[in-house]
């Protein structure tokens, strides 16, 4: 058997194996991810104070874009939070508490595990203090193997190397004890990223 014939045979065997497993190809997985990643996320958190005051914090994640080339992932988005304070006897006041542009890059081959995570604070309101039905950002969390700082995170032009990448994908409703996190872990989008991570040759986490 010639080398060319052998190569074609091995390619055919690989294609048949993929078909038998019923797993999407890399191209199909990328297409699904791009088609299901939200372009924006709106969130808010409200807290009532004992003296009748109120803090209303509103956030918008916009311009959420992702590109994947080979196993290299690049994510960019704009995150703005504004807070409105209302106190008895005083005129309402509003201020901007966050205006940040993010650029996150990493290699899926460096990612050991993927999880779901929720923001613990929006503006001045923590999850535990927020009125029911407040909505906190939810992220897909990509964790590098051995905690290595292989993720590049740039915020407003300032770059740091860290071990975790967070991609916003939705909201976590207060008063539900983070039930949405399990929904995210069981979602098709989560499974698509996990499938892509494995296709990229990433290491598997240690299990005993």
Description of the molecule:
This protein is α+β, with helices and mostly antiparallel strands and 208 residues long. It has one domain. Helices cover 24% and strands 46% of the residues. The chain has four helices and eleven strands, in the order H-H-E-E-E-E-E-E-E-E-E-E-E-H-H. Strands 1-2-3-4-9-10 form a six-stranded antiparallel sheet, with no helix packed on it. Strands 5-8-11 form a three-stranded antiparallel sheet. The protein has a two-stranded antiparallel ribbon with strand order 6-7. Strand 9 (151-155) and strand 10 (158-162) form a beta hairpin. The longest helix has 19 residues, at 3-21. The radius of gyration is 21 Å and the shape is elongated. The termini are far apart. The model is unreliable at 1-20 (pLDDT under 50).
Topology:
Blueprint: H1 3-21, H2 26-36, E1 41-48, E2 54-69, E3 72-86, E4 93-107, E5 111-118, E6 121-122, E7 125-126, E8 135-144, E9 151-155, E10 158-162, E11 164-173, H3 179-185, H4 188-199
Antiparallel strand pairs: 1-2, 2-3, 3-4, 4-9, 5-8, 6-7, 8-11, 9-10
Helix pairs in contact: 2-4
Key terms:
about 210 residues, alpha+beta, 6-stranded antiparallel β-sheet, 3-stranded antiparallel β-sheet, about 25% helix, disordered N terminus
Total domain modules: 1
What's the mean pLDDT score?
A: 90
Shape: elongated
How large is the share of residues in beta strands?
A: over 45%
Q: What radius of gyration results from the CA coordinates?
A: 21 Å
The percent range for helix content is: 10-25%
- Sheet with the most strands: spatial strand order: 1-2-3-4-9-10
Order of helices and strands: HHEEEEEEEEEEEHH
What ranges have pLDDT less than 50 throughout 5 or more consecutive residues? 1-20
**Separate helix tally:** 4
Number of strands: 11
Note the main sheet.
6 strands, antiparallel
SS-based structural class? alpha+beta
User: What is the straight-line distance between the termini?
Assistant: 44 Å
């Amino acid at each position: 058997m010639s080398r060319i014939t052998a190569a074609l045979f091995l390619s055919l065997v690989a294609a048949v194996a993929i078909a038998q497993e019923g797993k999407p190809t890399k191209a199909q997985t990328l297409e699904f991810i791009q088609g299901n990643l939200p372009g924006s996320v709106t969130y808010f958190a409200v807290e009532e104070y004992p003296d009748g005051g109120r803090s209303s914090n509103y956030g918008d994640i916009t311009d959420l874009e992702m590109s994947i080339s080979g196993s290299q992932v690049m994510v960019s988005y704009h995150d703005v939070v504004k807070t409105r304070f209302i106190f008895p006897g005083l005129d309402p006041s509003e201020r901007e508490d966050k205006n940040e542009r993010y650029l996150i890059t990493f290699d899926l081959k460096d990612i050991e595990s993927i999880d779901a995570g929720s923001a613990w604070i929006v503006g001045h309101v923590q999850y535990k203090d927020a009125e029911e039905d407040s909505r906190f950002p939810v992220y897909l969390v990509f964790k590098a193997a051995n905690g290595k700082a292989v993720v590049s995170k740039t915020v407003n032009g300032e770059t740091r190397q860290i071990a975790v990448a967070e991609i916003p994908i939705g909201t976590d409703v207060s008063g539900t004890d983070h039930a949405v996190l399990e929904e995210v872990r069981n979602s098709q989008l989560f499974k698509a990223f996990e499938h892509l991570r494995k296709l990229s040759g990433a290491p598997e986490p240690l299990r005993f």
